[in-house]
Each structure stands twice: as structure tokens, then as C-alpha cells.
Amino acid sequence: ADPPADDYFHQVIAADQKIEPRDAMPEAYRRTLVRQIAQHAHSEIIGMQPESNWISRAPSLKRKAILLAKVQDEAGHGLYLYAAAETLGVSREELVDKLLTGRQKYSSIFNYPTLTWADVGAIGWLVDGAAIVNQVPLCRCSYGPYARAMIRICKEESFHQRQGFEILYTLARGTAAQRELAQDAIDRWWYPSLAMFGPPDSDSTHSEQSMAWKIKRFSNDELRQRFVDMCVGQAEVLGLALPDPQLRWNPDRGGYDFTQPDFDELFQVISGDGPCNRQRLAHRRAAHDEGEWVRRAAAAYAAKSAERRAA
Ligand code: FAQ
After folding, report:
1. pLDDT tens-digit profile of 225-242?
2. pLDDT digits (tens, 9 = 90+) for 236-277
3. CB-ligand 1 contact for 193 (6 Å cutoff)
4. Fewer beta carbons within 10 angstroms: which end of the chain, N or C?
5. Cβ(49) – ligand 1 distance below 6 Å
């Protein structure tokens, strides 16, 4: 009899090698990857909105050019990740449709508003910082196309994180009002950034299986801890405070004790009821509708080119 379809699969996972698109894989592994990669792609696409809110109001031409480049990178990451998901036998149209109809998620963090220019700094420092902590281990994910996509994306995220840090560093050394703006942005973005890592391990439905399949390499709580430990020193360099009175070094654990984010709020935001959920999806749907003529023109051009090649 033929060996079970997932036999090769388990050997590859055990040997810490990569599963590639044409390899046999359990259906549940494929579905988990489609879910995670699609969510990740959607996050990049929706994630352009909070920052693009500030492109036309950036305080200098240089800041505007940098922010424009960053937001363009995010569009690129989204398309790159949709392509990685497509290697699993789903189409981009299908995934976009699931986003627009609310059947697939995107990261909770992009449902918070960007009220001031300092928010662009806080997003770069904290949100991209959290994204890097989460995504560097994904470069070793067992699914080849996702792991390889993550390498380039992480390099660009590093640039994004530094630009955010540099914005806050500049504001922290500006006027008293600028310093206050920077502190206020950190106060508002800190806990939502901690929540990006997902529910605590005890409530994480997918972690155990995803770690066994080596999609995830660390649990949500492990990565959250790593992020806190990284931010403390950086906040000192900024000369700004993290808004947590419980934050203190714990020599027994070799990490900082900290206050957990409000997970009820996370679930509320995930379920569609955050401060900007409706606005973000409405904006995305409108942009999609407005792009209809571009998709049609591209398809007509592709069909004509194919006809010409066949002739
Ligand atoms: N938001 O069982 P788990 C970026 C859902 S960075 C929304 O622990 P899992 C860069 C989860 O999907 C942001 N939903 O799930 C950027 C599941 O629901 P489901 C994107 C969340 O998958 C910066 C349920 O809760 N990065 O875009 C969240 O094992 C600036 C139970 O959770 C990625 O997506 C949340 N925060 O672990 C762009 C990284 N947390 O699907 C623009 C890749 C949990 O059963 C501007 N993803 N949920 O309906 C991952 O690493 C994982 O999917 C986790 C969640 C860690 C997010």
C-alpha cells in the first residue's frame, strides 16, 4: 500500500526542513497557513490606512518622502504575502473577498486612530517593533514560501522601526509640547501593541498545533515578554516612559514583570467592534470598488497579449 500522504510531511518537519507548495501536507496544515498568511497580508493592506492619514500632513518634505516609502513597502508586503498564500491553492480574489466581507481577520492594532504626528513615530517604534519580534522567528517557519517572504519583509520592517524611533527621539528633544505629543502617543499605543501578540497562551486556540508544525516557533506570551524586554532599554534612550507602573526587572525570571493588555478589549476589537473597524473596512471597500476599472483593464490587456502570443 502507498504510505500515508503525510508521511514525508512529518519527516520534513522533524528534520527541520521546509515544506514546499507541491509537497503532500495535511489539509489542516494548509488551512492554518492560509488563515495566518492571509491575515498577515490583510494586516499589511489595512495597516496602510492609519499612517497614510498623515502623509499629506507630515512636518517636512523629508518626513513625507520617508513615510510615503514606508507605506509603499507595506503595500508590497501585502502583495508578496498574497502571492505566498496563493502557493497553497487559493486565489487572491478569494482572499480579498473574505477580507471585504469580514470572513478573514486582520491585526487588531490597525483599528486604533492616529490622532497626532507622534502616532506615526509610535507606530514605527512599537507596532513595527512588535511585528519584528513576531516575524523574525517566522523566517524559520516550516512552510518555505512564507519563511522566505519573511526574510525580506523583516529587513524592511527594521527600517520602519528605526524611522519611528527616530521620529520619537526628535520629538523628545524638541519643545515641551512636542515631548508631550511623543509621550501621549506612547501612552496610547503601548497596550494595543502588547495585544498584537494575541491572547495569552492559555486562551490561544492555535498555538499548540502551530508550534508542533513549526509554523510558530514561540508562543504568544514568550514573544510578548521578549518585546517588553526589548522596549524598556529603548524607552530609556528615548527619555520617554512606558505607561506601566508595574514594570520592573525580575531577576528570578530574567525578564521584566509587566501589566498585561486588556484581553477583553482585544477580543472586542477582533470581533469587529474596535474604535476604527467600520471605518477601515469601509475605506478598503471603497478603494476596491474604485479600482475595478484597473483590474478590468489589466485583465483585458493580459487576454489580448495572450491572444497575440498564440497567433
Ligand atoms: N489581531 O490561537 P491564536 C504588520 C486571533 S504586523 C487580530 O493565538 P494564532 C506590520 C487569531 O487569528 C501585524 N486577531 O492565533 C505592519 C485567532 O482567530 P482565528 C500582522 C488576532 O494565529 C506594521 C484567535 O485570535 N502580523 O502587519 C490577534 O496562532 C505597521 C486566537 O489566537 C501577523 O499577522 C490580533 N492581534 O496567533 C504593517 C503575523 N491575535 O484565526 C503596517 C503573523 C490573535 O482562529 C503598519 N501572524 N488573533 O479566527 C501570527 O503570528 C499569528 O497569527 C498571531 C496569532 C500571533 C497574530
Report:
1. 999 999 999 999 999 999
2. 999 999 999 999 999 999 999 999 999 999 999 999 999 999
3. no
4. N
5. no
Nearest CA to ligand 1 atom 23: 128
Tell me the one-letter amino acid at 70: K
119, 135, 206, 273: which to mutate for ligand 1, most atoms within 8 A of CB? 206
Asked whether 92 lines ligand 1 (CB < 6 A), one says no
Which helix or strand (DSSP H or E) is residue 249 part of? strand 248-250
- CA dihedral sign, ordered 154, 22, 216, 277: positive
Cβ 220 under 6 angstroms from ligand 1: yes
Provide DSSP, 183-201. HHHHHHHHHHHHHTT-S-G
Cα–Cα distance, 162 to 175 (Å, whole number) = 22
Residue 28's H or E segment, with its range, is: helix 27-46
Cα-flanking dihedrals φ and ψ of residue 251, to 5°?
-65, -25
The angle formed by the CA atoms of residues 263, 164 and 280, to the nearest 5 degrees, is: 50
Residues of the chain with pLDDT under 70: 1-6
Question: Closest by alpha carbon to 232, among 218, 212, 217, 248?
Answer: 248
Outline where 108-213 has alpha helix (H): 117-122, 128-135, 144-172, 176-195, 207-212
